[in-house]
Structure formats: structure tokens, C-alpha cells
Amino acid sequence: QVQLIESGGGLVQAGGSLRLSCAGSERTFSRYTMAWFRQIPGKEREFVGAISWGGSSTRYADSVKGRFTISRNYAENMVSLQMNSLKPDDTAVYYCAARPTWPPTSDARAYDYWGQGTQVTVSS
User: Fold this and answer.
1) Mean pLDDT value across residues 7-36
2) The 3-state secondary structure of 70-104, one letter per residue
3) What is the pLDDT of residues 56-69, one digit of tens each?
4) Is the pLDDT reported for residue 123 higher than 90?
């Protein structure tokens, strides 16, 4: 059982930056594809991006490409989401998720483990 804990959310003005972190509970965390999703009330979870277990491959949603970057820190069992040039439309609860295979999918049902979520609010 992999436990995921997100941190780093908060309130930021449009054009600003935030860095979210997702800590994994066990050493096998490094063998999972790690993804970030986001969700606003009344909508389905939206795929933001993902990184392969080896860290050599990433995928991003078109809406965040060029602004968001996902990275892994194996020594700390952590995955980060660096968000730059934030827009009010980026406001959501952000979740990290894990699945054992690559490539990633935008279907949230394909992910085995989820964090509790962290709120990101971008003011205009």
C-alpha cells in the first residue's frame, strides 16, 4: 500500500508560482508512474501531467504545457509539480496519483493510489 501526501498548496496572484510536493510512503514508490490531477467542484478530475518511474519521460496536458514541470527526487521519495505563470483557471484541488505502468492515462480510474489533495487558489 502506497500512501501519498501532498503539500505546498495556497493562495497566489495570477502570474505567480507555486511548487507542490507529493511524498510517498515506501521505497517502491520509485517504481510507479506518478501523475498530478486537479479538480474543481462539480467537475471530473482533470489530468495535469505525469512522470515515468525512471524520470526520463513526462507528459503534460495542453493547458499547462510550458508552464508546469514535474520532477522526482528519489532520495526523498518525492514528486514535485512546479507551477509557473499561474492563471485563475488553474484554481483547483490538486492530487497526486500513482500507477505501476507507463504511459500515463488521463483516466483517473486507472490510478491505484491517491493523495488527499491540496488546494491551489489563483487570484486575478
Assistant:
1) 91
2) EEEECCCCEEEEEECCCCHHHCEEEEEEEECCCCC
3) 999 999 999 999 99
4) yes
Q: How many Cβ atoms sit within 10 Å of the Cβ of residue 100?
A: 13
- CA dist., res. 32 & res. 86, Å (int): 27
CB 123 within 8 A of CB 13: yes
Instruction: Look up residue 90 and give its three cell numbers.
Output: 488553474
Q: Are 30 and 53 contacting, i.e. CB atoms less than 8 angstroms apart?
A: yes
Residue 52 CA to residue 69 CA, distance in Å, equals 13
Beta bridge partners of 5: 23
As a whole number of angstroms, the distance between CA 81 and CA 23 comes to 12
Name the burial class of residue 27, with classes exposed (0-12), middle (13-18) and buried (19+) by CB atoms within 10 angstroms of its CB.
exposed
Instruction: At 18, give phi and psi (nearest 5°).
Output: -145, 155
Chain-centroid distance of CA 19 in Å reads 10
